[in-house]
Amino acid sequence: MNSKLNNAIGFAMKAGRLKSGDYVTEKLLRAKNAKIALIDTTASDNTKDKYRDICKYSAIELIEVEELGRWIGKPGRMVAAVTDESFAQMIRRALEQNKTEPEQNKTESEEQR
Length: 113
What we know:
The chain is an alpha+beta fold. Helices cover about 60% and strands about 15% of the residues.
């Protein structure tokens, strides 16, 4: 997982703009008070399906991340919601950088040959 993404999630948690846990996250999503939702890649299929449906209905982006509980300082948590647009944008940017870095690293290794 990208360290910038980890940092962005951690900053949102420390600033109090990230709420975690099943009940709180579901409540925020249904009320459309969340800007983005985060779910751990190791969450069960039922949990993933549940939150995909809620996010689709609420028109809120759902992002899968590795080791979510670890990065928010609450091991075992599988879902979280970001309530601030600035932190949501920071997480989206970090995610985009994470997607482009493997391509850049592949190109650099090919150039070295």
